[in-house]
Amino acid sequence: MTKDIATPIRTKEIMKKYGFSFKKSLGQNFLIDPNILVNIVEHAGLTKEHGAIEVGPGIGALTEHLARATKKVVSFEIDQRLLPILEDTLSPYENVKILHSDVLKADVKETINEEFSGVEDIMVVANLPYYVTTPIILKLLTENLPIKGMVVMLQKEVAERIAAKPGSKTYGSLSIAIQYYTQAETVMIVPKTVFMPQPNVDSAVIKLMKLDKPAVEVIDEEFFFLVTRSSFAQRRKTILNNLTSQLPDGKLKKDDILTALSKAQIEPTRRGESLSIPEFGALADALYPYFH
Ligand code: SAM
Of the residues 33, 55, 85, 139, which should be mutated to test ligand 1's pocket, given the most ligand atoms within 8 Å of the CB? Predict the structure, then answer.
């Protein structure tokens, strides 16, 4: 087995060889601890039957662990300066494909069709660029991709919000947006010291396994998400006040909103943070006729 990329010495060597400098604006904090990488791969449950999609390979620290563990890895990297470096560092691995692309603009479904024919179990595994964690996760979940799930590193605070349960301070529309599609669990808290350069915030690894079907069946998904976002617009306000101030013509339709709340058996004085996903589903469906 070749020497790991993810050590402080090797990372410094590679940076020096190519005169590479980190771009903070691209969220470039590279992993320099192989133990963390082994743990990430283990949590993803990868085997040689699996395919892995990576966002942001950097200099290849995680990519090489994915290459060792899976049948094939496809990585999206936005920074062109990293391409010649990756060609060098990943040269021992024949099962890696690097795509020079902004993952937010990429047609990931088409990439999967092209690159993973015959591979049924595909996981997204990444140390995400922190300035765009939420848009990346939401894109990959809402595009109905044939993936089993994701194991990704992100800011600890965002991981807490994603995995939060009703009644907790961090539970909100992001928790619902993600838990609508997945079973969400924080699997590791990661210290700043395993990165070069060290980020300003603490990190965590979160595991999101896609549900067979969404957590609740609703009439209209878009309206369901509008209702959840509206309900958390001002956390200290009651659900009734948030819905009347946020939904289109909500103030005029206050009586309808009260009727819908009653139909969904939700007290108007409750706060959004106390409602479970099934309760939000029932509420959105009860409100639906008054807003369409
Ligand atoms: N995987 C490497 C590691 O763990 O050491 C690097 C992770 S670093 C936190 C994030 C990487 O994502 C960087 O290589 C950065 O250039 C890349 N990146 C940032 N924005 C991106 C985007 N929109 N699409 C694809 N890659 C992106």
Answer: 55
CATH of the domain at 38: 3.40.50.150
CA 7 to chain CA mean position, Å? 26
Per-residue pLDDT of the chain (292 residues; tens, 9 = 90+): 568 999 999 999 999 999 999 999 999 999 999 999 999 999 999 999 999 999 999 999 999 999 999 999 999 999 999 999 999 999 999 999 999 999 999 999 999 999 999 899 999 999 999 999 999 999 999 999 999 999 999 999 999 999 999 999 999 999 999 999 999 999 999 999 999 999 999 999 999 999 999 999 999 999 999 999 999 999 999 999 999 999 999 999 999 999 999 999 999 999 999 999 999 999 999 999 999 9
The annotated binding site for S-adenosyl-L-methionine is made up of: 29, 31, 56, 77, 102, 127
Task: Say whether both 77 and 195 belong to one domain.
Answer: yes
205 C-alpha to ligand 1 centroid (Å): 15
Kindly state whether residue 2 falls inside one of the protein's structural domains.
no
- DSSP structural state of residue 93: -
| Predicted TM-score (pTM) of this structure | 0.96
The string of DSSP codes covering 128-182 is --GGGHHHHHHHHHHTT-S--EEEEEEEHHHHHHHH--TTSTT-SHHHHHHHTTE
User: Structurally, how many domains does the chain consist of?
Assistant: 2
CA distance 243 to 231: 6
CB of residue 281 inside a 6 A radius of ligand 1: no
